[in-house]
Amino acid sequence: MPAPDLRHYDAVLIDLDGTFYREEKHAATVLPGAVELVQALRRRGQPFACLTNSGGSPGQLSRRLASMGADIEPELIWSCSAAAAEYVVGRFGKDRPPRVFNLAADGTTELLDGRVIWVETPDEPCDAVMVAAPINPLASPARQWIALQLVRRGAALVGQCADRVYPSDRGAEFGAGALTEMLAYAANVNPVYCGKPEALFYEQLCARIGAAPDRCVLIGDNLDSDVAGARGVHMQSILVLSGVSTAAEAHARPPHLRPEHIINSLTELG
């Protein structure tokens, strides 16, 4: 099957980890064809954006990509932390700044400083508790206890993404979804998730770049968060075999959950 012609789409969305770069034991490296793909999109003026379930802010991720030799402006990066920040401000910030307890990482602080009232104790009024992966200084056991009290008293539980685990050089780590579900179970509430594969994540991003989801194509390596998320908003998808999912797994999926195209690497696109 030949690689698709990206010029047929109004915008191209590119997943980061596993698609644009790969996490190695001591560093991350850009994958073959990634920089060249971005350069081709820029040359012809085709809108594009990069997306990720990383808890970092777009600014942090832009700086990290620059350290790998890839220049992507923060405005062209959409992370689950950015989606969660916009969700909280949009839902709770109509008449006053939202009152937020940050159980997430410092990327959330960067995104929301000056836009919210930070809650620090279990007795303060609180609109939302924001949760990321537990390996971060803001998710200490003492702060998890505060989060539990706030959610039990009525604060919304907002998970940046539903990832059970994420890969690191040690192997699998507890993801944002694991900590969010622990708090949800303890408080007997239903959490809200804002990252991939939620429709909210993709709809927010498409609104930012001014393209309808059904006129976009997503390039990603994960059938569950990338392909399923894209299909959920009627977006076409390209599975690249450089990360999580395999071609055999894709062909085993029901037709409505399969990617429209499968490629071995980004070098096949342009």
Explained architecture:
The longest helix is centred in the first third of the chain and has 13 residues, at 80-92. Helices cover 34% and strands 21% of the residues. The chain has 2 domains: 6-53 and 196-268, 3-Layer(aba) Sandwich (Rossmann fold), CATH 3.40.50.1000; 95-193, Rossmann fold, CATH 3.40.50.1000. The protein contains 9 helices and 15 strands. Helix 5 packs across helix 6 (176-187). Helix 4 links the parallel strand 6 (99-103) and strand 7 (117-118). With 270 residues, the chain is an alpha/beta fold. The strands form 4 sheets. Strands 5-4-1-13-14-15 form a 6-stranded parallel β-sheet, sandwiched between helices. The two termini are 16 Å apart.
Mean pLDDT: 94
CATH H-level homologous superfamily name of the largest domain = HAD superfamily/HAD-like
In the CATH scheme, what's the topology name of the largest domain?
Rossmann fold
Profile the largest sheet.
6 strands, parallel
Please identify, by name, the CATH architecture of the largest domain: 3-Layer(aba) Sandwich
Strand-helix topology:
Blueprint: E1 11-15, E2 21-23, E3 28-30, H1 34-43, E4 48-52, H2 58-67, E5 77-79, H3 80-92, E6 99-103, H4 106-112, E7 117-118, E8 128-131, H5 141-152, E9 156-159, E10 165-168, E11 171-174, H6 176-187, E12 192-193, H7 199-209, E13 216-220, H8 223-232, E14 236-240, H9 247-252, E15 261-263
Parallel strand pairs: 1-4, 1-13, 4-5, 6-7, 6-8, 8-9, 9-12, 13-14, 14-15
Antiparallel strand pairs: 2-3, 10-11
